[in-house]
Amino acid sequence: MTDQLQRLTEDEVRRVAKLCRIGLSDEEIERLRGEMTSLIAEVSVLQSINTIGIEPTGHAVEEVHSVMRDDTPRIALSVVDVLSNAPRREGDYFRVPAVMDNGEG
Amino acid sequence: MTEYEPVIGLEVHAQLITNSKMFCSCPADYQSAPPNTHVCPVCLGLPGTLPVINSEAIKKIILTGLALNCSIAEQTKFDRKSYPYPDLMKGYQISQFDLPICYDGHLDIDVDGEARRIGIERIHMEEDVAKLFHRTEAGSGEGYALVDVNRAGVPLMEMVGRPDIRSAEEARQYLVAYRSILQYIGVSTGSMEEGSFRCDANVSIRPKGVLEYGTKVEVKNMNSFRAVFHAIEFEIERQSKVLNEGGRIVQETRGWVEAKGETISLRSKEKANDYRFFPEPDLPPLIVKQSWVAEIAELLPELPIERRVRFEDELGLSPYDAGQVTASPRLADYYESVIQHYIEINGPSGTIAKSAANWTITELGRLSNDGQIPVEDSPLKAEYLAELIGLIDQKIIGTSQAKIAAESMFTTGKSAKITVEELGLAQITDSSAIGDAVREVIEANPSAVADYMAGKETAAKFFVGQVMKVTKGKANPTIVSELIIEQLEAKK
To answer: Does the interface ipTM go beyond 0.95?
Structure first.
């Protein structure tokens, strides 16, 4: 199948990198074009399975269902622990770069 | 110029009232907590943690679905929505994509006497995001943000309405009705000011008679019911103008700017499908037992519309009055309590339903607006309003004195009797005292007496006004009128 698959374009790799919020050099993009193309080829073997008439599943493991917990609150971490891995902090807050494009709730 | 028809759909987020967060046991009350004190490895998105569903949140969303005539899924699942902003530490939000818990419901509203049924596409469960505080570096002027994770993971319910709304007023009513239901069934505080209830609107227009939808614009940042109304009005105007000038509507997100009274473009949504939803691997599907749904259905209280109809049928209120007093469950409780107390003090009455409604809506409504405090939270207890109405009905005080008393009681919280006594508002019903005042006024106004003698009936009204003035409005008006006629007739 690998042979039939078109190599990913530079733009496609750049777009994925942008969505993942990672910066890539031109060489890295070139290398990833090859690596990502073979990864997709690897997975695309799934496309050959005939799924007509098969019920969709919501999870990889069949017959496993979520359990629920009671609504009982518990304090888990102290502020000191919460902020212990923060690359940057200010008072009891995490400090992060400006958010240009506000997301949605 | 083409006439356009607006097509509006609302998306409403409401925080559910629970003790703990949606997927972890951190306390859910973030409003008063110091920053980053209600946080654990799960809501921080630390490696190796797993979410566990809060059963209370699921119970409350099912209750909501039932109140809105939705079908409840027997099997539901959660999905990951990619979210590359620092207000969700995991880098994704756990939401629901194709199998929401509640779907295909509707909400009936009444707009200018016309019944309208607005569809509900779905109500799904997700988690709220952290709070960001935007700051600017003093020296460099560079912007940055501070993150408080307390709110991240609080149960958030999203209702997606169908594009069945045709005006800004319909949108406002629909939103009011939806919030009222959430408050009645006790699942959300529904406070737009505190951010526990947020609304986005999808607005498009199409030439009248055309079935195809126009390009829609998503409007955000509306922080009050008024804002929702005005933002939609503005957007309908703006889009009509663009089309009439031969332009094209761009699919985008626009933000409402309250101070300017307009919407501004936030970002283009044309390449927006970057959420990359996929089934949440950490949460297998959830089976919702129909027996549990039946148990939850038993918990449904009387809904606003049912209470409104009951008030119309049993108490004889007009649809308008019934709508007003049932606007919030606590206001309706207050109103019912006024009637109950009145009957306890004065016995059954044919007029108390209407007069209690008038007092609650008009007089207390005004005081509530001025004082920025809901009627039911004011110091004026239902019991004392009942007492006050009783005093009017027994003719101990007149309506204008009662208004003065109510205004005072609204801040002091004192009983009606004590207030009337302290402010000296009781009516003068003593005929001889009123008779003296009438004599005085008649003697002082010979020309008006002449008018009356000449057959000018309105002159009697003039005397009533004068007597009320002399008695500082405290004379019983019926007795005053009787005595004036009596004394004037005696002069003939």
So the answer is: no
